[in-house]
Design brief:
Elements: H1 7-10, H2 19-26, H3 30-42, E1 47-51, E2 58-65, E3 68-76, E4 79-86, H4 91-98, H5 103-110, E5 119-125, H6 128-141
Antiparallel strand pairs: 1-2, 2-3, 3-4, 4-5
Helix pairs in contact: 4-6
């Protein structure tokens, strides 16, 4: 795969990528670690969806716990971005959780506008610490299983 080609060019609407192709494109140990955590903590399996959204066109990966959306993951060359929605009712608790998060995640939260639908955080998974932030914020959406890693 060419590093210069964009994700939506490599995999147009009629060409769904395999999990192995996702892994190669993301080229990050944090991506399989996130998938493993979502499976262990929530029983969530990846589901591929094609989006024609002008801001994020192409295949993305959604994870759900039952009918509840946990996160949507967008593929980047060398990493992934996890989108987590913080509901307005969860914002006070989120602000407490953020005290334990990285400066990156705290700043992202402060710079993300709140709306009636909440805050939609786009977290670039570029370090193990940010992965821990993602796990902490996911727990606001749904409680993880006790023995999840």
């Amino acid at each position: 795969m060419s590093d210069t080609m964009k994700w939506d060019q490599l995999f147009p609407a009629g060409r769904q990528p395999s999990l192995e192709e996702l892994d190669r494109y993301a080229d990050s140990p944090l991506w399989p670690e996130l998938r493993r955590y979502l499976k262990d903590a929530y029983g969530a399996e990846p589901r591929m969806d094609y989006s024609r959204c002008g801001l994020e066109p192409g295949w993305n990966v959604k994870f759900r716990k039952g009918s509840k959306a946990l996160t949507t993951v967008y593929l980047r060359p060398g990493y992934v971005t996890a989108m987590i929605s913080i509901a307005p009712k969860d914002e006070p608790e989120a602000e407490g959780v953020l005290l334990t998060c990285t400066a990156y995640t705290q700043e992202l939260y402060r710079n993300t506008a709140s709306s009636k639908m909440g805050r939609w955080l786009m977290l670039d998974l570029t370090s193990p610490e940010v992965l821990e932030d993602v796990k902490a914020l996911l727990a606001l959406r749904a409680k993880p299983r006790v023995n999840a890693r």
